[in-house]
């Protein structure tokens, strides 16, 4: 009796375990990639950026890891793949969403096990142009290649051991091939994972905002023809108060060094000071680049300001007197110097001026980077709506005959067929066959009404679509 009860519990336990496992795996699918890789290697960088007299020289792409189209494609798949977390629930993109300029909307982000990150997620746009390429708010990571492996191993973010990740990727149906395409052999190791992720992150650049469109035709200190009066006034205020002071300078709106901007009078988070151990660095953080700033809230390393209004108001009259306060934010007419605490600036901006500054900051939004397919999620099952993407006309498979009463054959040219789906001429999916793994597959159309059908075939993560006619 006892024995059968034990067996019963064991069986129920097994069913529960199997169904939980199934549920997790059911959320995973293969990526779909273009036949010809997207262009990551040769980005278009406008002249006003290339000729930036204020110093556009901070390209941190190392000679040991130049961006290649295949490398960044692999990086894109890794970036969006939830398998990088121990329980297949979190990808890099869970905290770095394209629509929010590769950050998220939370004050602190949620990791694989429900834990919260200690700081606010950072935008990844234009990382390539950060001086020295050091990463994180406190610049504790010396390079992007070093940084990208940190969230994977972090016990709040993804909780994964690198050796286990390598095994997981080796057992996947698509990674060996993607590594082969990126590096010439299908060997998977942490160094190759890091390089591909770094290539993808570095490829994300944004120079197509309304600011850039105005700047392309007009010097920086003149009114832009494509701006409203409020935006032009905001631009002038920004130049005076924010840029001439040496902050958010250059056309990339980057800061040279981490700064203490007087968020707190007593250090709460030591920032750079926690890394160098030097008390003079306490409360210093890297400033964000400002392109797409309207999309990246909440703001500051701890996400304390929910809206831009709160940020501008803070710079106007909210700065606190920290001993390490940056000199440009001190009112030198009122401060007699150490050992007195510095006296923070008070800009005395009117409400209209604050609104103009915000209107200007919004012109830095670049919808291209927020929507471009080459930086988007390649996993169709993560996207509620799947559409046919126009594909260049390179045949991956032969489909014949294209007029038939009963059968058609799909024959792959090089690699085995992974999936086939049949769509009606209105785009409705009628049949879907997964895990085929054969060079040839036969489809039976004999029971279907006459008319056009689309056959969508997936081979080597790429899609080819053929039209056939049932007579
Ligand atoms: C659970 C949320 C979360 C996940 C998952 C995550 N990140 Fe982050 N990311 C953050 C947070 C928070 C920070 C800022 C941390 C800090 O400075 O202490 C950050 C910072 C970064 C930075 C530094 C940017 C800069 O300007 O210095 C890069 C690059 C980055 N993440 C890339 C990645 C990549 C690549 C992955 C996937 C392998 C990833 N992140 C996964 C939350 C996350």
**Which ligands does the model contain, each kind named once?**
heme C
| Structure class | alpha+beta
The number of distinct helices, counting runs of at least 4 residues, comes to 15
Mean pLDDT: 89
Rg, please? 27 Å
Query: Quick one: CATH superfamily of the largest domain?
Result: Cytochrome c-like domain
The total count of strands amounts to 8
How much helix is in the residues?
25-40%
Main beta sheet strand tally, sense and closure: 5 strands, mixed
* CATH class group of the largest domain: Mainly Alpha
Oligomer: single chain
* Unreliable sequence segments: 13-26
Distance between the termini: 64 Å
Overall number of domains: 3
Order of helices and strands: HHHHHHHHHHHHHHHEEEEEEEE
Residue fraction in strands? 5-15%
- CATH 2nd-level architecture of the largest domain: Orthogonal Bundle
CATH-assigned fold name of the largest domain? Cytochrome Bc1 Complex, Chain D, domain 2
Shape: elongated
- Give the strand line-up of the largest sheet: 2-8-7-4-5
Describe the secondary structure blueprint for this structure:
Blueprint: H1 2-26, H2 47-50, H3 69-80, H4 92-95, H5 144-147, H6 149-153, H7 162-170, H8 175-183, H9 190-203, H10 210-215, H11 229-243, H12 272-276, H13 308-317, H14 351-362, H15 367-371, E1 397-400, E2 403-404, E3 407-412, E4 417-424, E5 429-433, E6 440-444, E7 451-459, E8 462-470
Parallel strand pairs: 2-8
Antiparallel strand pairs: 1-3, 3-6, 4-5, 4-7, 7-8
């Amino acid at each position: 009796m006892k024995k059968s009860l034990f067996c019963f519990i064991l069986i129920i336990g097994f069913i529960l375990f199997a169904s939980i496992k199934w549920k997790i795996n059911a959320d995973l699918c293969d990526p779909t990639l273009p036949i010809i890789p997207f262009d990551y290697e040769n980005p278009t960088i406008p002249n006003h950026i290339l000729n930036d007299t204020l110093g556009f020289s901070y390209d941190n792409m190392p000679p040991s890891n130049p961006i290649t189209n295949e490398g960044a494609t692999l990086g894109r798949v890794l970036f969006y793949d939830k398998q990088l977390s121990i329980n297949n629930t979190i990808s890099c993109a869970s905290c770095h969403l394209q629509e929010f300029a590769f950050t998220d909307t939370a004050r602190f982000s949620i990791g694989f096990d429900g834990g919260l990150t200690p700081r606010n997620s950072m935008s990844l746009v234009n990382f390539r142009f950060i001086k020295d390429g050091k990463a994180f708010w406190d610049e504790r990571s010396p390079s992007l290649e070093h940084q990208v492996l940190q969230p994977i191993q972090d016990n709040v973010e993804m909780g994964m051991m690198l050796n286990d990740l390598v095994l997981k990727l080796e057992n996947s149906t698509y990674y060996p091939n993607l590594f082969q395409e990126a590096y010439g052999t299908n060997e998977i190791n942490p160094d190759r994972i890091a390089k591909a992720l770094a290539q993808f992150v570095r490829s994300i650049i944004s120079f197509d905002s309304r600011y850039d469109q105005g700047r392309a035709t007009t010097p920086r200190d003149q009114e832009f023809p494509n701006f409203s009066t409020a935006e032009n006034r905001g631009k002038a205020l920004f130049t005076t108060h924010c840029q001439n002071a040496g902050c958010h300078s250059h056309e990339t709106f980057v800061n040279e060094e981490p700064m203490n901007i007087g968020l707190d009078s007593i250090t709460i988070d030591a920032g750079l000071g926690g890394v160098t151990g030097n008390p003079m660095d306490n409360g210093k953080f890297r400033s964000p680049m400002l392109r797409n700033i309207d999309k990246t809230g909440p703001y500051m390393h701890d996400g304390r300001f929910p809206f831009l209004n709160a940020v501008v108001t803070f710079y106007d009259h909210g700065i606190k007197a920290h001993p390490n306060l940056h000199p440009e934010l001190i009112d030198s007419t009122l401060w007699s110097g150490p050992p007195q605490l510095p006296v923070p600036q008070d800009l005395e901006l009117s409400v209209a001026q604050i609104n103009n500054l915000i209107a200007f900051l919004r012109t830095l939004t670049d919808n291209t980077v927020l929507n471009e397919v080459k930086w988007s999620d390649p996993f169709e099952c993560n996207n509620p709506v799947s559409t046919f993407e126009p594909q260049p006309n390179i045949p991956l498979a032969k489909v014949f005959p294209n007029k038939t009463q009963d059968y058609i054959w799909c024959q792959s040219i090089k690699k085995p067929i992974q999936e086939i789906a049949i769509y009606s001429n209105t785009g409705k999916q009628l049949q879907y066959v997964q895990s085929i793994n054969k060079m040839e597959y036969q489809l039976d159309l004999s029971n279907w009404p006459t008319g056009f059908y689309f056959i969508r075939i997936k081979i080597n993560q790429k899609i080819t679509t053929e039209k056939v006619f049932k007579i």
